Amino acid sequence: MLDTSHIDDKSVVALDAETQAKYEHLQAILRAMGSVLIAYSGGVDSALLLKVAHDVLGDRALGAIASSPAYASEETEEAIAVARQLQLPLVTLETHELENAMSKTMSIVAIFVRQSCSPILSHWRKSTS
Predict the structure, then answer these.
(1) Euclidean distance between CA atoms 23 and 32, whole angstroms
(2) Tens-digit pLDDT profile for residues 117-128
(3) Residue 2 neighbours by CB distance under 10 Å
(4) Number of neighbours of residue 27 by Cβ within 10 angstroms
(5) So which domain of life are we looking at (predicted)?
(6) Which pTM was predicted?
């Protein structure tokens, strides 16, 4: 887990002018949006974006992370722990893309079988009647 307990205002290095300008531009974009929902993975990019959004917008910034059998549960737990440690608001959405993918695949297979077997079934029905 990312340990940020040792970071305080005295240990933070000032940003160079170009990076500071980009940071302020990001803040302005977020402020103009008014509220945001950030797709959060626990990685550096989404954690930084959620942190800046929360700093700028407060309760009008929310992170969302997907929890699914498609992702390692340890990685999801680690990402949630990082958000907690940074005191960032986060919702966990249970996704079922594997189930949905399987049902879509089965539907496609069923359609294929019906279309492929239809002439055979028609011929069989005629021959057995």
Answers:
(1) 14
(2) 656 555 555 665
(3) 13
(4) 15
(5) Bacteria
(6) 0.67
